[in-house]
Structures are given as C-alpha cells and as structure tokens.
Specification:
seven-stranded mixed β-sheet; 2 domains; Aspartate Aminotransferase, domain 2; 399 residues
Length: 399
Amino acid sequence: MTDTKTWLEWSAQYLMNTYARNPLVLVRGEGTRVWDSDGKEYLDFVGGIAVDALGHSHPKVVAAITEQAGRLIQVSNLYHIAPQIELAKLLTEHSFADKVFFCTSGAEANEGAIKLARRYGKERFATDRYEIITMRGGFHGRTLAALAATAQEKHHHGFEPLPIGFKYVAFGDLRAVEQAVDNRTCAILVEPVQGEGGVNVPGDEYLPGLRKLCDETGALLILDEIQSGMGRTGRLWAYQHWGAEPDVMTVAKALGGGVPIGAILAKEFVAKHLTPGSHGSTFGGNSLATATALAVLTTMLEENLPARAERMGRRLKERLTALKQKYPAIKTVRGLGLLIGMELDRPVKEIVAGCQADGLLILTAGDNVLRFVPPLIVDDVELDRAVEILDTVLGRSLP
Ligand SMILES: *Cc1c(COP(=O)(O)O)cnc(C)c1O
C-alpha cells in the first residue's frame, strides 16, 4: 500500500502546483466525516467547498450514480437526454426560471451566462451594449471571462489581457451600481452572498434595489448562486430571502453532489437568444451527472434540507458568536444559513492548520476570515464538536 509520505512526494512530482494544499490525503468519507490515508478521522466543514450538501457517500446519491452508470453515462447533446430533461423540469418548478442550459462547472456556467447576456444586449438593444457590472470581492471562476468578471486583481496577475467589458463597483453599495449603469450595460452580475470574498451578506435593500435598477434600465440581473444556492443559505436559492428574482442564475457546486455539473437558469425572454449552434458543452448535462443531480435535488426537497440549513446555521452562528466574548481577536461572525464566516483581526491560516491537527477541516475566505460550509445534513453533536475543537485551537493560537 502507498503510504502518505509517498503520496505527497508523487503529488509534488506529478501535479501542477496550483493549490496551496494541506499535507493530507483524503481517502474515504461518510456523512460529515472523512478519513485520511493514515486512518485519521476528521469532521468535514469544508465539504468539497460547499459541494457535498448531502454529505459524503449519501446512499441516494451512490444509488443514483451506480444505477445510471450501469445504464448510460454519456451520449451527445445532439440527442435528447432523459434525466437532463427531468432535472431541468425540477429546477424550473423550484425557481424563477423557464429554461436551463447544463455545463460542467461554475466557471463554465458563468462563461455561458456572460455570452448569453452579451447576445441579449446586442440583439435586443445595440451592438455596443455588452458591458457587465460586477462587484469587488466577488468570485466567478478561473476561466478568462469569469476571471475578468472576478473583481479581485490578485487572481488576474500574469494572465492579462483579460476580455474587456467588465466594470467593477463596491459590493453592497446600491448607489455605486446606479452610477455605473449606462446605455452600454447589458447585465449586473453578483453573488447574493459573497462566498470566497469573505462571506459578505448585503443589506436587505440591496437585491431588491438591483432588481428595480435592472427593470428601469433593461439590464439583466444575473445571480451567481454557485456557492449560495442549493439550500446553503437556508432557502433553496439565496435570492428567495429577499424576494428579488433574477433574469439569469448560475448554479454548480452542490448541484451534482460531487459529480461535476453546472447550470444556467434563465427566463424565456433571455434564454431564447441562445439558438442552435450558438453555445454548447460536450459533457454538459450528461446522463450520469444529471441523474445524480436529480437525486441530490429530489432528496434535498424531500428532506427539506434548506430549512435544516437555516436551523443548524442559526445554532452554529450562535455558538461562534459566543466565542467572541472569549477571544477579542474575533471581529465578527456573519453569514446566512450554513454559509458562515468568522473574521479575525489577523491571518487565519494557522488556525485552519490547528483545527486540522485536532480533527476539523475548515476553509478560509480571504486572509482573515474562517469559512464554515458543512454538509446540510450536519447534526447538533457534530456542530457542537466542531465549535469545541475551534475553541481549543483559538485558545492555543491566540495570545
Ligand atoms: C466556486 C465558485 C465559482 C467557480 O466554480 P468552479 O466550479 O470552480 O468553476 C464561481 N462562482 C462562485 C460564487 C463560486 O463560489
């Protein structure tokens, strides 16, 4: 059997060094727990970065994959794909959307949404109406256009020239967006709750204000719900907290329960601008991925996991907020549902490492924010245990 040291050596030798990886080889998972190659157990509050909403190896997900893999994995989108049709139907029945396009990742969904918005702006209004307003601290993916939409210059470095046509304004600032919109604006693209950018929840007037602005100017409202969607914030979609519907929404991460899939959801008046041959994806919405996503979404709805995320999120937020009394280094605890951030007055890298050593996996969101995105099936005992581990580590790490 290959030992951990050898795995790490081979990893360094054969893989491009694009991730600041923790020196850990994860080999098995069940529910909210994972095990490394030495057999050590961890509570997983990373969940594949807000992907494993149903936890690891959920029986319904495993059954869907197994059954579909034995029947049909991939055919071309030149043919109709039964589970893809069923999944699109279910997604539209449970959202604002009329139509769905499937792809394989979040970045690809945003690329497609950007193409859709440009085509819409040009065909509906004018050829120079292609600009998209995005928000500082946002994150939309690593492909070139998604990167250009991502208003965090640290991610751009060395990859210029990026596609033009993006304008950045401060997140949560309605006035700034109002001032930035003009007759070249085809869309506003925003995460309802910023994930990577620090777990930032906007004020209650923000999304409804953006909706109104779009209605007045003809710009499309595109919501990137790749991280905030699929029950994560306590509603199936985060926009439902504010009753402000988008025209276009991108989804990925938790949609496939770990099988790569992304989607663009849209109203018909926008969707109709993508015509045969104008966009596509070889693997997009293939039989295996959509059959799996169908099981994920069905289970999520049957077990009312968004409500569970709200309940468990409230508990986690309370517990984390209580730590503030004890550690003045904690500045704020914020978030919605089970998308929670804890901002410290210092870099948190060491705390993440400390938690890992004590058996808890957590994420960062920027340098100073700890991010908690456990599976939505997390229970009270696991949640309290996680906070206990964090408490111990903070006690050890903070002066
Ligand atoms: C993760 C993420 C993406 C990118 O998704 P990939 O599947 O990694 O391409 C885009 N937007 C948001 C909000 C995300 O959290």
